[in-house]
From TrEMBL:
E.C. number: 2.3.2.26
Native source species: Frankliniella occidentalis
Listed name of the protein: HECT-type E3 ubiquitin transferase
Domain named HECT: residues: 282-583
Gene Ontology process terms (BP): protein polyubiquitination; regulation of signal transduction
Domain of life: Eukaryota
Entry-linked InterPro entries: E3A/B/C-like (IPR044611), HECT_dom (IPR000569), Hect_E3_ubiquitin_ligase (IPR035983)
GO molecular function: ubiquitin protein ligase activity
Catalytic activity: S-ubiquitinyl-[E2 ubiquitin-conjugating enzyme]-L-cysteine + [acceptor protein]-L-lysine = [E2 ubiquitin-conjugating enzyme]-L-cysteine + N(6)-ubiquitinyl-[acceptor protein]-L-lysine
SUPFAM superfamilies: Hect, E3 ligase catalytic domain
Entry keywords, A to Z: Transferase, Ubl conjugation pathway
Enzyme class: transferase
The keyword Transferase is assigned to this record: yes
SMART domains assigned to the protein according to its UniProt record, in alphabetical order: HECTc
Amino acid sequence: MRTFDSYVELCALFKENPHQDGARLVDPDLKMDFLYAVYDALRELPNSIHKSVLKSMINAICQENLPDEVRAMYILVQCPMFGHQSSCLIFAQLLRRIVHLPASDHQMLVHWLKILEVPRLRSMVRNLMHFLSLRQFPTADPTHALPEPNKIKWWIPTAARMLAFINAANNSCRPPLLHFSELYHEALDHIDLAADYFRWQDPSPCSSHFSYCQYPFILSINAKRLILTKDSEQQQMINARRSLETKASRQVSQVDIFFLNMTVRRSHLVEDSLKEIQRASERKELKKKLRMTFAGEPGLDMGGLTKEWFQLLVREIFDPDKGMFVYHPHSRCYWFRIPSSARTWDTAESASRAVTAPSSPVAGAAVEAELVQDDDDAVVARLVAASEEEESLQQYNLIGVLMGLAVYNANILDLRFPSVCYQKLLSPPVVPHADLHLGVVRNPSLDDLAQIMPDVAHGLRELLAYQGDVEQDMCLTFQASIEEFGAVKTFPLKQGGEDIAVTNQNRKEYVRLYLDWMLNTAIYNEFRSFYLGFHSVCASNALIMLRPEEVEMLVCGCPRFVLHDLRKVTEYDGYQSESAAVQ
């Protein structure tokens, strides 16, 4: 009772130096092993001791403006007894005090959470989830009745804010202490998620209600999929209503205006799909429900034709003969082909400023002025190259639109992109007004490159760790050599890079430039087209809620099958679960 009765007693017992003033950002300066031992022992003691401790905590929590407040709260919030329903009133008050600490103390708390043992952090998350459930889904048990709902509206926001501190601490660790799915509160799948999302979207100043969408890391992938579906349905209804208003005077089937109707020939799948998507984009119809027709084939699309179109189009675009994507066998994934005209030592940001559509009048005038000075063969060659580049960028845009339509229409695609692709796709998650830095991953790492070329990433790690003379032993220059489709292409990583040797002193710069070139600069135009295609369909505030890994799951489905889940929904007809064929 004495120990937990005041911040002074708590800090005197658990601080490494009881006379130390102030606190450090990097370390709480607590005897953490001793604290863990006390809490482990306390967990095994009888309920009467638990009640004494909780009563004492009330006195401590009611104290204000005392030194070491944030340190004392860091100690208290780890208490294992907060996993019991009987402690929820005290836990709520503690969380409220933590949330009302100044921003500098919050920053300190986030840093301190990073040094917790993983099981302790996981236990804290479990206690907070249990607390959220008690408030969101109150029990009918009269022995554990909560105060009136109007008096405890602040419970859920304070618990969510505490989880946000844990999420911030977790995301700043490499690797994270917890998998992001461990912060999902899957019971929230059963609340009215559409209402929660639209409450979050409400721009009116009087709308100050709490929304779980403010803390998207709490919502499971199933919850986010439902929100995206509801948002898609709402936008589809808005577009259908607009079509109804604009086409009221025309002789148009009343059913057709509610759909994005596309007709393609199997023999000209990519070409026809590009034309249909361009037409739909001009009419602002991409956000309607997709309905496919294959030319010359009778049939009504009830979902099967759309799914077949997705499959056939993905198969054709990723065909090696197309030369748009390169398959990397070591990682078993595809990555964007690096064009022969890839940008070299210019930065991604200069590339983003320089990108102009082939139809741009300014670009056209500049090209025309250059062409006047060339001979006829050069003119023809350059026009052909420009035409091929334009067609290539259109097809990258088509893949982006395809991914967007798949998410929008709840279809799974058989795509094998690395996770860094989805990270780039959300950089930024909403297309900015200024066309800068689209799809550029900030500070790419060797782990990002290892998703595509693990052998190259390993080689670069070896280069950084090499103890000998890099210049004499490795004979490298500031160039990148890439083998694609049986041909080796070499590009300088900086101006004059072919003449600059890699040494022990500049090898870090070499690796940094290599990563930025491979993942950003070399494919900037191609990925920009891909990015804009995806966002032309999926532009939505709901996208802000998603992590790159979650976008990947929405596009491609689960990367791993959980057989236990499959067994739970399996029905047997003429077999049993123990049958040899089933096993």
